[in-house]
């Protein structure tokens, strides 16, 4: 009995020591494991035997009630988290929609705004979409010439050979325009290239207004890009700017253009070709076209009715724009019904070396008297001492402006022979051969200085007398 009583007393003492510890642990575990129900449940199960031992130390119902309460709290928290997640997703969607709208507005404003740039090619204003553009630029060619006269007095001096400003661009996607104003050396101011074009049927383009007839490689090359200060003697046949309507098309290696033309803008006055009309066409092909290598072939023609005045006049300056003297001159040829111009072109580029030549035949058909045949030709070559190569546009069949490779610019040495024959049957306009040596310094894309020496040989001149002359001339050229 004593032993049993002793054992009971010891058992009671152990419970008093051990059960409060279990009770406290389970309570603390329940508090710390609110969001980890599985872990808390495992701890409780592990201690259930001890709970049974501690009959009066821990209430099982209280433990299960606490578990239920924790589960309920956890479910509520999960529900709140899910609602919060949905709210965050909604807000993200709203923010994304607002951002997309803002981005669309920014792009719309950007497309409607203009991009302004000033470069070596002039002032440019272009809409972001590219459907509208405006460009302004111009050229100034200032010449000085010294003449060693023989019979004809040419007169030394300086002249503003060209002074032009232009405006061009696009109105809507497919419509183009250009308006160029020329300030000539005699002080007169007037329009030059003024036209409206449409290129919505690519590769075909249309043009209406005052522009160059499609004739001759040398004539179609810009005066900013020609090798010598003046075009050759043969260029006296080229019709240049006329009022008309034209169409052109091109591929990667060829170009074709044609047009119906009236007369010059000064047709109200007496003009060289009278108040007639003409059809002009030009076709070009570059069968060999590589970087710094080129073979160009071309042919052009013009049929012109002289109109009511039935007369033409052919004359040429000695490849110098300062003088007003014409060593060869047919004066007016009357009773002319129409004229035919046929021109052939050949050009080649091999690295820094280029060759170019043309032959133009002018057939004059008269209503009274015999028909007439005149011709002109030239051949020229150039060599870029600094290694550049003449740039070429195959779609238009022309040479374009050069950009020097070096900071000190580009140097070009050139030589040309040209001839013109205005003598035939009863017309004695004269014959002339010119030999020109040229030196060009391209300071940069916009500035060029030119020096030409020309030996002129008229045999005979317009008066039937042989004469020769030497010309030394120079030019300062600015393109902007």
If you had to describe this structure to a student in words, what would you say it looks like?
The chain starts with a helix and ends with a strand. The protein is an alpha+beta fold and 480 residues long. Strand 8 and strand 9 (254-261) form a beta hairpin. It has helices spanning 2-32, 37-46, 48-53, 60-112, 217-220, and strands at residues 114-119, 122-127, 133-148, 157-171, 175-183, 189-201, 204-212, 241-250, 254-261, 277-290, 293-305, 311-316, 328-334, 336-350, 353-366, 372-384, 392-393, 398-399, 410-424, 427-442, 447-458, 467-479. The model is unreliable at 1-18, 30-38 and 45-58 (pLDDT under 50). Helices cover 22% and strands 49% of the residues. It has five helices and 22 strands.
């Amino acid at each position: 009995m004593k032993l049993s009583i002793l054992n009971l007393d010891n058992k009671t003492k152990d419970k008093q020591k051990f059960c409060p510890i279990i009770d406290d642990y389970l309570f603390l575990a329940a508090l710390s494991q609110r969001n980890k129900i599985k872990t808390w449940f495992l701890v409780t199960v592990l201690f259930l035997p001890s709970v049974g031992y501690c009959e009066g130390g821990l209430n099982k119902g209280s433990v299960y009630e606490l578990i239920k309460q924790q589960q309920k709290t956890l479910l509520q928290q999960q529900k709140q988290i899910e609602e919060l997640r949905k709210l965050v997703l909604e807000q993200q969607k709203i923010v994304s929609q607002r951002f997309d709208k803002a981005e669309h507005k920014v792009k719309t404003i950007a497309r409607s705004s203009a991009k302004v740039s000033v470069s070596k090619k002039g002032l440019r204003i272009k809409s972001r979409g590219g459907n509208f553009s405006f460009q302004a630029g111009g050229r100034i060619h200032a010449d000085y010439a010294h003449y060693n006269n023989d019979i004809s007095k040419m007169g030394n001096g300086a002249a503003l050979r060209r002074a032009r400003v232009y405006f061009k661009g696009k109105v809507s996607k497919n419509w183009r325009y250009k308006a160029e104003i020329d300030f000539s050396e005699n002080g007169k101011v007037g329009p030059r290239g003024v036209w409206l074009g449409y290129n919505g049927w690519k590769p075909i383009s249309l043009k209406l207004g005052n522009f160059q007839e499609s004739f001759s490689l040398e004539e179609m090359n810009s005066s900013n890009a020609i090798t010598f200060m003046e075009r050759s003697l043969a260029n006296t046949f080229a019709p240049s700017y006329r009022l008309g309507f034209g169409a052109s098309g091109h591929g990667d290696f060829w170009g074709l253009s044609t047009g119906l033309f009236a007369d010059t803008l000064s047709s109200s006055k007496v003009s060289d070709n009278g108040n007639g009309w003409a059809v002009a066409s030009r076709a070009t092909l570059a069968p060999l076209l590589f970087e710094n290598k080129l073979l160009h072939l071309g042919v052009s023609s013009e049929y012109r009715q002289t109109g009511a005045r039935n007369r033409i006049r052919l004359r040429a300056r000695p490849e110098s724009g300062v003088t007003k003297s014409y060593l060869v001159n047919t004066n007016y040829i009357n009773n002319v019904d129409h004229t035919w111009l046929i021109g052939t072109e050949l050009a080649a580029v091999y690295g820094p070396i280029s060759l170019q030549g043309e032959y133009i035949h002018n057939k004059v058909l008269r209503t009274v008297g015999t028909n007439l045949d005149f011709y002109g030709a030239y051949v020229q070559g150039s060599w870029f001492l600094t290694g550049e190569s003449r740039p070429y546009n195959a779609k238009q069949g022309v040479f374009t402006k050069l950009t020097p490779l070096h900071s000190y610019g580009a140097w070009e040495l050139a030589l040309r022979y040209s001839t013109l024959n205005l003598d035939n049957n009863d017309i004695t306009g004269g014959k002339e051969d010119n030999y020109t040596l040229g030196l060009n310094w391209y300071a940069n894309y916009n500035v060029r200085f030119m020096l030409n020496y020309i030996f002129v040989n008229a045999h005979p001149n317009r008066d039937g007398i042989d004469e020769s002359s030497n010309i030394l001339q120079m030019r300062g050229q600015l393109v902007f």
